[in-house]
Specification:
Order of helices and strands: HHHH
Shape: elongated
Structural class: mainly alpha
Distance between the termini: 67 Å
Radius of gyration: 19 Å
Largest sheet: none
Helix content: 40-55%
Strand content: under 5%
Amino acid sequence: MIRMAVVTALVSIVLPGEFVAFPDIKGGPSAEVVNSNCLACHSGEMVTNQPRLSEAEWRAVVGKMRATYKAPIAESDDAAIVAWLTAMQQQRASSGG
């Protein structure tokens, strides 16, 4: 006869930093779609510190998130996400960031 014991323990997980939503781009696209799709997996700092990519490259990245990593991003959100990412990087470049 085989006997098994089950041991359970409470685990506490502390996430780094505080939640910071992506900002709207002044005079540009809203961050609403980015916040609802990207913040589930990515911090604001992680996304805003990516190398500068072209619009086509961002489209490929968004497609990769959906196809490879199974991110639940509706294809209808792609254009708004890419527009925000592109505008965010243009804004950072023009402000010296």
